[in-house]
């Protein structure tokens, strides 16, 4: 190994790496470890505060008919979903939907400011259209517990 003008030469593998690219690589590794550690921290906080798992806090059900898809959430007391977090995609394309039933309110979030949220029951309708691939519909949503713990974005596959 020889260091010349911020370039490290490794002769045994005949590879040349700049210190800049090595620093970028190390930064990526450290960020990855940080993300992994945050997910473990989140799991730990949920267990320590007796917070329900996301699938229990936001019970989702779907009903498929000939012309539409109904998606409903039963949100447990003490929990809420962000209105703007609900997204439906088909093959990575956003789909429009209609909110049929909900109790929307404004919540002052310390990170997002004033945010529209849903509590209790939410019912949305997605019209079936030609070319809609039911096997590739993803329903995405995110919510929090009133105790101040938020869940990562949840992804539910329609079928």
What spatial form do the alpha-carbon principal axes imply? elongated
Q: What string, H for helix and E for strand, traces the elements in order? A: EEEHHEEEEEEEEEE
What is the second-level CATH architecture of the largest domain?
Sandwich
**Number of strand segments:** 13
Helical percentage: 10-25%
Q: Domains counted in the coordinates: how many?
A: 2
Radius of gyration: 23 Å
Q: Output the CATH homologous superfamily of the largest domain.
A: Thiol:disulfide interchange protein DsbD, N-terminal domain
Tell me the strand percentage band: over 45%
Mean pLDDT: 80
Q: Extract low-pLDDT stretches.
A: 8-17, 27-38
Major β-sheet profile: 6 strands, antiparallel
In whole angstroms, the N-to-C terminal distance is 55 Å
